[in-house]
Please model this.
Amino acid sequence: MHFSLAWRAVLHQDEAGAVLCDGGRGDAGRMSAVETVRKHDSTKGAHKLTDVRRVSPTVLLLGLLVIGQVTWSSPASAWTLEGHRLIALDALSVLPPQMREALTPHLSPLLAGVEEPDFFRVVSHKIPLISLRGTPPPPRSGAPDALKQFASNAQEMLRLGRDLWGVLFVVGQATHFVQDLNQPLHAGWGETRAEHNAIEAKMLYRSWQKEHAYRGFTLVRDYSCFAYQIAQTSSQHTRALFWDRDIKRVTELAWDKAVNDTANLWQSILWNTLGPARAAQIYGIPAPVTDVGKGLLC
Model:
């Protein structure tokens, strides 16, 4: 099933109908969105996992930035904010219908979580495998550990019965690393910030749903190993993207892989938490066609 561009705009609405992205409704719409975030925040309760970033202030700040149609991208990010959002929406379109229906009312925190790591950068979002200029390699990346931590936090929150609103924000944070590692420049090092940002700004692919199809649920066994495997694949295109500026072809390949990996991550978090029977019953998640996150890199 393919979502139209009009449906994409609908999916940016929160439960109160406030548009958070793409085509806002002016100041009144913006205020209703902010008030929705504040209202929800006031009802969450005081108990939180100690190793999860505090969701409430972050979501409020990200909501304000997204509402304002911000297109700023932090230094050495992999995709623009619009790119991150569109990849997530393409992934949403291929989820099992039950799961898609369950997630759609909670897109506000999910998309805010997807963008948050670019605003509050704690670790590198790269796994440097390809040297572009022969410079010394950077320190070991924290991206695999970050992906594993966020995905594990989301699973623990689900086990504890936490509000899906908060869970999906953390799922979004994990998603950001999956998407970043699929951008081939995030498997390399040696480019300047200006070079990186100039290439990134051109990497948008708006016709995935018309030209590609989901390859089926692949279960992620180990999240940090998954991160390394993503980087190994994307590194095959790093030099072509940087030296040949083969932006159109590489963008299509990387985007397709990022959509598939995002959909697989979301289903795997539920599958690994609930088990196959409950994941199928509640969210319609099928048996995986294969699995990843195992092998020599794990």
Summary: The chain is about 55% helix and 5% strand.
